[in-house]
């Protein structure tokens, strides 16, 4: 019998091998041709889809050139040239400004506030573009900010914060792909308007802590930390179209230097705690009780430009700098708080103090009262996060130290605040 090698090397088998190899080669070649056709067809479809997308985008831009996606902002552009010339009060002091505002709120709106509250409000605006009004319901938090807008002759904008707010678009609006228009919020419209005017603009964030402030207001907080106001821009859209409003630069809007944000805060189960990040950057005003009514007459609107208000504050800082005695007391209190509680004023709070005290004094108050107010709100509030048993045991010693440093008649708010914390924890 023939062996295995003879069998597989027989000419008939060799012919079979050759036929199989040729068949495989033909199969591979045909498969490659088919795949190439499929790839070519897919590439053509992809190119066609890309062209369609580009054509659709270009068509949107062409439509935008006819009808802007920012209808409200474009309307303002059209009417801006016909707006009346702005005229502002120049010969007024901060003390007169506070007195006239208090009289205006009472006579025109039936709203009564102690003069100390008015001074704290005005001095707070001089320190920061963010002011938080907190206290019990019905004490006039929203009304105070609303009345100030009326007093300026430039009504405040009230923005009711919603519980689901999380990001910038909740405040500024968003581009609707279906309607091909931008949903412009009232805040966006007022920011756009404020950038072309000199008035003071007051934006009220009503119930600001019903959502997390550090989420939806995060970009505003960051921008307000930038020293140069000309560098504070918020992105509204990612690109610029030909017929976009004139003051939008590459889809961005400038955060107006003449706009203040006044938030009203409630402290109950329906709200979130305001973080230290927000508290440190803002000024705080506590409205814990209603003020008694008083007779008021001779009220008037006082239009003052944001620039003039800033100038008055700067003049106060220059001419009424923090008294040397108060600076020495501050240093002693700071050292005590560091040693006993590991809390300190910090550079930001010190800068705020150096502005708040002189402006409060220029508003007609005493520097020591302003110091009592800002230390209680900005520094001693940090005791609430300390070990409860330790704070309770050290509370009276801290009050005694305050008496020894500032006098028994001074810093009443600070001592009351410390004792209240000790009682509540």
Quick summary of this structure?
The chain contains 17 helices and 9 strands. It has helices at residues 4-8, 11-66, 71-80, 94-109, 115-127, 141-152, 169-172, 186-194, 213-216, 218-223, 276-281, 306-319, 324-341, 346-362, 367-378, 388-406, 412-424, and strands spanning 130-135, 157-160, 173-176, 181-184, 201-206, 233-235, 252-254, 259-265, 283-287.
Spell out the key features of this protein.
about 425 residues; alpha/beta; Rossmann fold; 3 domains; 9 strands; about 10% strand; elongated
User: Helix count?
Assistant: 17
Q: Strands across the major sheet, in which order? A: 2-5-8-1-9
What best-fitting shape do the alpha-carbon axes yield?
A: elongated
What is the C-level CATH assignment of the largest domain? Alpha Beta
- How many strands, what sense, and barrel or not for the largest sheet? 5 strands, parallel
Number of strands: 9
**What amount of the residues lies in strands?**
5-15%
Transmembrane segments: 12-34
Domain ATPase dynein-related AAA: 131-281
Protein name: AAA family ATPase
Keywords: Membrane, Transmembrane, Transmembrane helix
């Amino acid at each position: 019998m023939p062996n295995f090698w003879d069998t597989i090397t027989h000419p008939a088998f060799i012919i079979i091998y050759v036929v199989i190899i040729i068949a495989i080669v033909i199969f591979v070649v045909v498969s490659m041709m088919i795949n190439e056709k499929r790839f070519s067809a897919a590439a053509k479809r992809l190119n066609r889809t890309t062209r369609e997308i580009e054509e659709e985008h270009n068509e949107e831009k062409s439509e935008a050139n006819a009808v802007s996606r920012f209808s409200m902002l474009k309307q303002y552009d059209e009417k801006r040239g016909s707006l009346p010339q702005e005229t502002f009060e120049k010969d007024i002091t901060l003390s007169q400004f506070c007195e006239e505002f208090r009289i205006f709120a009472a006579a025109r709106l039936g709203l009564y506030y102690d003069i100390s509250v008015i001074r704290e409000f005005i001095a707070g605006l001089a320190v920061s573009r963010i002011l938080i009004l907190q206290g019990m319901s019905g004490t006039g938090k929203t009304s105070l900010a609303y009345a100030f807008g009326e007093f300026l002759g430039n009504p405040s904008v009230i923005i009711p914060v919603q519980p689901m707010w999380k990001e910038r678009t909740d405040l500024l609006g968003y581009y609707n792909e279906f309607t091909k228009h931008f949903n412009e919020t009232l805040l966006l419209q007022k920011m756009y308007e404020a950038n072309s005017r000199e008035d003071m603009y007051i934006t009220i964030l009503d119930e600001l802590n019903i959502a997390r402030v550090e989420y939806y207001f995060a970009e505003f907080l960051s921008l307000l930390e930038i020293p140069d106001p000309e560098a504070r821009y918020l992105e509204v859209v990612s690109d610029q179209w030909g017929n976009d409003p004139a003051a939008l630069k590459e889809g961005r809007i400038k955060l107006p230097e003449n706009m203040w944000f006044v938030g009203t805060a409630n402290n109950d189960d329906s709200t979130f705690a305001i973080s230290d990040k927000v508290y440190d950057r803002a000024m705080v005003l506590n409205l814990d009780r209603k003020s008694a009514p008083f007779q008021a007459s001779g009220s008037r609107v006082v239009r003052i430009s944001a620039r003039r208000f800033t100038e008055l504050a700067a003049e106060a800082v220059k001419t009424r700098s923090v008294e040397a005695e108060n600076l020495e007391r501050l240093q002693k209190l700071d050292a005590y708080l560091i040693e006993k509680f590991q809390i300190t004023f910090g550079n930001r709070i010190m800068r705020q103090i150096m502005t708040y005290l002189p402006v409060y004094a220029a508003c007609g108050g005493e520097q020591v009262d302003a110091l009592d107010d800002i230390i209680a709100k900005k520094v001693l509030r940090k005791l609430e996060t300390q070990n409860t048993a330790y704070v309770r045991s050290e509370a009276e010693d801290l009050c005694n130290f305050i008496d020894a440093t500032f006098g028994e008649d001074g810093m009443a708010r600070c001592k009351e605040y410390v004792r209240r914390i000790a009682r509540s924890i």
